[in-house]
C-alpha cells in the first residue's frame, strides 16, 4: 500500500483527495497535516499531526494543495530532512524562490509540479503550442474564470498555457505577457494577454483565443468538478512514488 500524506487537507481539493483515496486499492492515508485542530472527519486510525517532520516520516508520498506560504514551509522541511520523500505539488501562485526550493528537493527525491492536474489541460497546452507556432500573426488572448475565493491571479494554469504559446512562438513569455490592459493601453503586435475573472463557485475555465482579421479560433477547457484535480493528483502520486530524483512535469505522466 502506498501511504499518502495530505497537505492542505481541510481545503477544497484536500478534502476531495481524502475522499478519493478510499477508491484506490493500492493507496491509503499515511498522514494528514493540520494547522490547528482537526475540524473534519477522517477514516479511523488516520495519523493527524501539526509537526511537519513527523508528517513526512509517515508517508511514501506527499500531495500538496495548500497556499504559497505553506508550500514553502513544506518544501523547506523536505529539503532539510535526512530521509526525503516524493512530493506532488498542486499549489499555485508560487514564486521563483519556491521553484528554486523544488529544484533543490528534486536532487534527492522525485518532485512533480503541475498548476493543473487535469488531462484536458495537459492536452490543451500541447494544442495551443502548435497553433501559436502555425498562426504566427494571430493575436493571442487568454481568459480565465475561477471561484471567488481563489487567491492568485492570473491562475497558474493560464500562465502555463501562456508559456506553451510563447514556446510555440519561440519567444520568452516575460517579453510579451500583458496582465494589465488598463495601464498598457492599446494592443501592440506580438503581445499575449491574460484576463482574470473571479466569481461564484466556478472550478476553472480557460479559453485561449487566436484572433485574426476575418476569423478566430478559441480553445476552451472547463473543469466542471474539482474531483478532476484530486483524481489527477492521486494518479501523479502513484506514478511518482518509485521514480528517481528529478523535477517532473505532468506531461510525463500523461505521455
Ligand atoms: P483552500 O483554501 O480550500 O485550501 C487550502 C488548504 O491549505 C487548507 O487546508 C488550509 O488550512 C491549508 N493552508 C493554508 N495556509 C496554510 C499554512 N500557512 N500552513 C498550513 N496549511 C495551510 O484552497 P484549494 O481550493 O483547495 O486550493 C489550494 C491550492 O491548490 C491553491 O493554490 C489553488 O490555486 C491550487 N489548485 C490547484 C489545482 C491543480 O490542479 N494544480 C486545482 C485546484 C486548486
TrEMBL record:
InterPro entries for this protein: DapB_C (IPR022663), DapB_N (IPR000846), DapB_N_CS (IPR022664), DHDPR_bac (IPR023940), NAD(P)-bd_dom_sf (IPR036291)
One Pfam family cited in the UniProt record for this chain: DapB_N
Enzyme Commission number, as recorded: 1.17.1.8
Binding-site positions, NAD(+): 8-13, 90-92, 114-117
Pathway connected to this protein: Amino-acid biosynthesis; L-lysine biosynthesis via DAP pathway; (S)-tetrahydrodipicolinate from L-aspartate: step 4/4
Binding site for NADP(+): 36
One GO BP annotation of this record: lysine biosynthetic process via diaminopimelate
Domain Dihydrodipicolinate reductase N-terminal: 2-117
Keywords: Amino-acid biosynthesis, Cytoplasm, Diaminopimelate biosynthesis, Lysine biosynthesis, NAD, NADP, Oxidoreductase
Localization per Swiss-Prot or TrEMBL: Cytoplasm
Gene Ontology annotations for the cellular component aspect, listed alphabetically: cytosol
Main location: cytoplasm
GO MF, any single term: oxidoreductase activity, acting on CH or CH2 groups, NAD or NADP as acceptor
Domain called Dihydrodipicolinate reductase C-terminal: residue spans: 120-253
Top-level lineage group: Bacteria
Residues at the catalytic site: 146 (proton donor/acceptor), 150 (proton donor)
Keyword presence, NADP: yes
Catalyzed reaction equations: (S)-2,3,4,5-tetrahydrodipicolinate + NADP(+) + H2O = (2S,4S)-4-hydroxy-2,3,4,5-tetrahydrodipicolinate + NADPH + H(+); (S)-2,3,4,5-tetrahydrodipicolinate + NAD(+) + H2O = (2S,4S)-4-hydroxy-2,3,4,5-tetrahydrodipicolinate + NADH + H(+)
Assembly with partners or alone: Homotetramer.
Function: Catalyzes the conversion of 4-hydroxy-tetrahydrodipicolinate (HTPA) to tetrahydrodipicolinate.
Family affiliation: Belongs to the DapB family.
Protein name: 4-hydroxy-tetrahydrodipicolinate reductase
The species this protein was found in: Helicobacter canis NCTC 12740
Gene name per UniProt: dapB
Amino acid at each position: 500500500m502506498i501511504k499518502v500524506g495530505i497537505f492542505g487537507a481541510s481545503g477544497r481539493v484536500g478534502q476531495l483527495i481524502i475522499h478519493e483515496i478510499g477508491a484506490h486499492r493500492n493507496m491509503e492515508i499515511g498522514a494528514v497535516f493540520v494547522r490547528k485542530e482537526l475540524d473534519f472527519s477522517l477514516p479511523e486510525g488516520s495519523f493527524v499531526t501539526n509537526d511537519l517532520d513527523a508528517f513526512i516520516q509517515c508517508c511514501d508520498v506527499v500531495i500538496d494543495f495548500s497556499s504559497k506560504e505553506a508550500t514553502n514551509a513544506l518544501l523547506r522541511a523536505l529539503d532539510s530532512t535526512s530521509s526525503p520523500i516524493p512530493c506532488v505539488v498542486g499549489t499555485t501562485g508560487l514564486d521563483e524562490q519556491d521553484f528554486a526550493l523544488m529544484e533543490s528537493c528534486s536532487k534527492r527525491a522525485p518532485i512533480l509540479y503541475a498548476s493543473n492536474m487535469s488531462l484536458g489541460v495537459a492536452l490543451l497546452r500541447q494544442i495551443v503550442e502548435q497553433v501559436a507556432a502555425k498562426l504566427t500573426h494571430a493575436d493571442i488572448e487568454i481568459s480565465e474564470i475561477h471561484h471567488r475565493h481563489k487567491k492568485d491571479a492570473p491562475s497558474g494554469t493560464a500562465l502555463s498555457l501562456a508559456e506553451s504559446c510563447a514556446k510555440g512562438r519561440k519567444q520568452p513569455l516575460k517579453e510579451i505577457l500583458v496582465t494589465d490592459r488598463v495601464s498598457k493601453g492599446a494592443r501592440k503586435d506580438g503581445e499575449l494577454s491574460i484576463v482574470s475573472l473571479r466569481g461564484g463557485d466556478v472550478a476553472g475555465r480557460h479559453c485561449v483565443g487566436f484572433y485574426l482579421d476575418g476569423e478566430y479560433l478559441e480553445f476552451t477547457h472547463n473543469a466542471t468538478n474539482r474531483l478532476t484535480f484530486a483524481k489527477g493528483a492521486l494518479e501523479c502520486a502513484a506514478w511518482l512514488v518509485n521514480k528517481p530524483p528529478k523535477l517532473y512535469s505532468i506531461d510525463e505522466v500523461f505521455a
